[in-house]
Write a structure and sequence with these properties.
This protein is α/β, with parallel strands linked by helices. It folds into 2 domains: 72 residues, Orthogonal Bundle (Helix Hairpins), CATH 1.10.287.180; 79 residues, Transcription elongation factor, GreA/GreB, C-terminal domain (Chitinase A, domain 3), CATH 3.10.50. It is 39% helix and 26% strand. The chain is built from 3 helices and 7 strands. The strands form 2 sheets. Strands 5-4-3-7-6 form a 5-stranded mixed beta sheet. Strands 1-2 form a two-stranded parallel sheet. Helix 1 packs antiparallel against helix 2. The longest helix has 30 residues.
Length: 158
């Protein structure tokens, strides 16, 4: 386990918001669902009760995970960075050298990854290949779609 989890301010705020929601909204809802299911009698054959208990277990696990991540978060503000070298928090415009498709990727912490929004984890193979490289560099990386080569067109922060 990492000592610190790098995360942006926005990612940290989203995790805190999720934690508050599951602790103070979802947890009481699940507790209520368990109470209602108990009233239905025999717990051995009570599917509602078992489903609610399973949901409770999952929710409590997520609370513990979020509390750990938040407690070990290292908040990094990309807006205070500059330069043309790729590092955590960078927005990187790349072009796939085989397909000429341009894509903007933002390198974020693993708990704020959203590939549909172009936010990729710092631990992802593409991020690891880009870190430390500069505008004009080409990087080869093995992805789930096979070997890809990207050229870095632009690096920005904030």
């Amino acid at each position: 386990m990492m000592d610190k989890y790098p995360i942006t301010k926005e990612g940290f705020a989203a995790l805190e918001e999720e934690l508050q929601h599951i602790k103070f909204v979802k947890r009481p809802e699940i507790t209520e669902a368990i109470a209602v299911a108990r009233e239905h009698g025999d717990l051995k054959e009570n599917a509602e009760y078992h489903a609610a208990r399973e949901q409770q277990s999952f929710n409590e696990g997520r609370i513990k995970e979020l509390e750990t991540v938040i407690g070990h978060a290292q908040i990094i503000d990309p807006s205070t960075m500059s330069g043309d070298t790729v590092k955590f928090g960078a927005k990187v415009l790349v072009v796939d050298e085989d397909t000429d498709v341009e894509e903007t990727l933002t390198i974020v912490g693993e708990y704020e990854t959203d590939t549909s929004a172009g936010k990729i984890s710092i631990t992802a193979p593409v991020s690891r290949a880009l870190i430390g490289k500069s505008v004009g560099d080409s990087v080869a990386v093995r992805t789930p779609k096979g070997q890809r080569t990207y050229e870095i067109l632009e690096v920005s922060f904030g």
